[in-house]
Amino acid sequence: MKVLYSELKMFLPALKAGPKEVANAFTYIGMMVDGYKEVRMRGQKDILLSLEVRQNRPDCLGVVGLAREIGAYFKVALVLPKVKLPVAHSDLAIEVKVPALVKRVSALQIDGLDNSQHTPKWLNEALAMHDMKSISFLVDISNYAMLMTGFPNHLFDAGKVVGKLTWQKATKDENFTTLDGTTLQFEKNRELVISDNLGPLVLAGCIGGRRSALSARTNSVIAEVAVYDPKKVREDARKHRLQTEASNRLEKQLAVEHSLWALEYLASLLLGEGKASLSTKIVDIFPRTTKPSQQVITWPIISAEKVGGTPVSSKESRDILVRLGFEVVEVKGSFRVTVPVWRNDVEGIADITEEVLRLKGFQNIIPIKPSFALAPVLTPPIITLIDESKQILQHFGFDEVLTLPLTSTKANQEFLQDDLRVEVRTQNAINEEYPVLRTNLLSGLLQQQEEYLKRGLNQVQIFEIGKVFWKSPKKYQEEEHLAVLVQCVDSQVALRKIYETLEGFLRQLGISNLYFENIVSKATAFEKDLFWEVKVGEVTIGFLGVAKRRPLSGNKLIVGTAIAEIGIGELIALQSKEKNKGPTEILGKMAILDANILVSSQSELNSKLLSVKKKYNKNIWAIEVRDRFLVSKQSIKFTLRITYLGLSETAAKKLHKQIFSA
Amino acid sequence: MFTEQDLATAIEELHNVTNLTEFQAVKNRYFGDQGKLTLLIDNLKNLPLEQKREQGPLLQTVKTKLHEIVQATTQRLLQAQGQLSSQSVELPFQAVKVGHLHPFTEVINKINALFIRMGYSIYEAPEIETDEYCFLRLNVPPDHPARDMQDTIYIDEPKWLLRTQTSSIEARALASLKPPFRIVCPGRVYRNEKPSKSNHFIFHQYQLVVVQERVTLAELFGTIQSVFEELYGEDVVIRFRNKYYPEVEPGVGPDMRCFNCEGQGCAVCKYVGWIEMAGAGIIHEKVLKAAGIDPTKFMGYAFGLGLDRWVMAKYGVSDIRTLLGGNLAYPYFERERGGKSA
Asked: With left for phi above 0 and alpha for psi between -120 and 50, is residue B78 left, alpha or beta?
């Protein structure tokens, strides 16, 4: 919303505060000024303010509403222009058939106008300040009245209206051409329209139609100001993808009590500028039998002080509320507060408290630094594990990247391991290249690698910890994963590095018993035969492999890429079994003995050592592989060094012999 | 000039060596005093500037790649000979890669550390959320105009969506935790927007929720000030103004004095001297009631910070797309960039 300083002064003639002070005041009381520009208006220096009016304050979508706020802040009375219309006796034929949707309609007819005349210069300038184009003399007056009052209005060319104006639902399926030439398709009993005897003339609250549009020959208009059920305006505007100045205001709760004044203000401008005459009396239809009663709220006087954490006296609270238009009566430590009709946003005690505190000024509340408070620790273990994992990988020389959780089906399918994991598709994402949520992290890491290679970066060791998503038959699932990528000139080197990284990473977390099982994968992103399941004991926690070489634009150098992805959640259960065994008190000398062992593969050695460790854990401090020798293709000789704990040398030798002589 | 074919040949030669003697000969052919690569690198200084710019980075890349494969070959030969010690063979210098955390993680860790010191827990909630937790429980009914502010990506309209704000984590916490509690929740949120230099369809927010017997705006302001000081130092200037959000009452908009112009007005702050950084307020009693918390017994405050602009400002990132899968890179050697991580 934009407003000129001079426009505020029009309604606040006694305002002494300058434009800078007014801008600051707006910002502090809830309408942040994000533009302050020196301009010229009617030949005078002026200031144009751009400010943010939030959805709860439709009363401030007109200059009068903004002036009312500033008047309350600076303790200056609001002066509304006196509108006195001439007397007319003829009736205007209008009818409201949907009283549940039309809160109030006020209308009148003015004759003797001349829409061929030029818009006065001041009006042209004023509209331009509000980012509106001049269209024609009468339309410009209509728009200006809306900007001042905050109430949209509509002018019909009276000569084109046939019979009675009726507010009703569309009576049949039909096309409707708007003022700007767009064709809308109305459905029977759906849209709220204003019709004459021939059919719809206006999509109520949104946009007028071409059939009754003003032209240069227009000399007589029917003017109306109406307030509708905001939900209906919103529904129709959304259905037809319309966002107009009118719908923006009417889909919020405007004060129905003020709409008649808005019509009178419009009429006074038309009669004053157009030298015309009022040909009918005002027809004012309040379809609801009783006027909505004003809300009365009992507000404990202590509320402002309690919530603000700053002293606020009873007198200060009362003064502020009265300046804002509330009626206040004190009753036993509380105020009975009658809410002004234009403040539909004020519904309860908290709203009144906010009114007092915002006008007192948040800038007058002194911040209190928070102190430590004992509170139960609620952090779930997975958050701690993720933090720990990131630190470990950083120390291993990996860079963390974050990639997009929205991706393409192709990127998901390349890593598809499990047919049961159905990808989650968005319904309305405007970015067509990212229609689904990722089911893996690796496709994102490979895309990141491409970004690096395009720019000539060749040391790529990256990881990401983030969520992957899928749909199971009954619900949507989310799971934290870890993915790592190592790029080397040789895929075997990359594979070795990633293997060591995973092993070291899990050991740091207190998880051992790691091994890799070579299997045939369905995932097409991996080189054939270079795919392993990552297992801890019997539990599969993820997979690793060599990524297929991809055509990389701008970089023709040969690249080997090893990648792995594991589920972080799986690690929590595994971690708790092995972590935190605590220190051991060493009372005697350690016994260190060497042994040779002949096995067919590294995994056989692992398996043997794990069973030894499990069985004799109490007395074995460490097992170290000192040497390895390829005896033949089928056998490898490993030299091990075992450190025994809590045993005499003789007892250690006895145990050593028992373990390794078999 | 060292061509792609030359590189392929070098790699093949290194792959084919079967013992350390052959290996040393191949290595000398490229890295020795008169080695092909050594001479080309020595000759760089004699090339015209244009060629130097083209050849320099390429030769550096080739050198690094060959070093890697030389290392791998060394390991292979040693293993084949049954030797495990790498000390017996002279290896080319290879610096240890230094790892980095993403700027979002760095900033989140910093704020988390502050709040953990003050007795807060870290909390999390789903990114695929229901309309109930993202809107309804936060005092935003289906026809509320506030929904226009947040262009929602739906999974299964109207029930399932991608959360548009970390306030949905607040709604989950209010529904499942027993007061009093203090939590913080960093998280990712989604908006249905086209990505550009300054806008993305994914944002990062940091939510704080406190529910206890009594809270005040003064404490909320102090808490927010602590976060700003943690991130920007004690000289940071903050102002608090009233701002409407459906889930809080009173609502607060904390702004920071523009770090670029120090309040004088510039393009960064749209010439107003202040930068809007967060949304906050006293939790609306309707929100507490919706979670089954008695507002006569407990009060609460909440605030949500947008992290993206903070991170961009702190790390000098000009394009928001850089932060997610873009061209964000980290220095290999810390000292070259004076220890900064991005």
From this structure: alpha
